[in-house]
Amino acid sequence: MAGKTLFDKVWDAHVVSQVDGGTQVLYIDRHLIHEVTSPQAFGGLEKRGLQLFRPKQMVATPDHNVPTINQHLPIEDELSRTQVETLEANCEKFGVELYGLGHPFQGIVHVIGPELGLTQPGMTMVCGDSHTSTHGAFGAIAFGIGTSQVEQVMATQCLLQNKPKSMRITIDGALQQGVTAKDIILYIISKLTASGGTGYFVEYAGSAIRKLSMEERMTICNMSIEMGARGGIIAPDETTFQYVEGRKFSPKGKDFEAAKAYWSSLPSDPDAVFDKEYTYKAEEIQPMITYGTNPGMGMAVSGNIPTSEANTDSFKKSLDYMGLEAGQAMLGKEISYVFIGSCTNSRIEDLRAVAEFVSGKKKADHVTALVVPGSKQVESQAKAEGLDRILESAGFHLREPGCSACLGMNEDKVPKGEYCVSTSNRNFEGRQGPGSRTILASPITAAAAAIHGKIVDVRELI
Question: Model pTM greater than 0.90?
Answer without folding.
Answer: yes
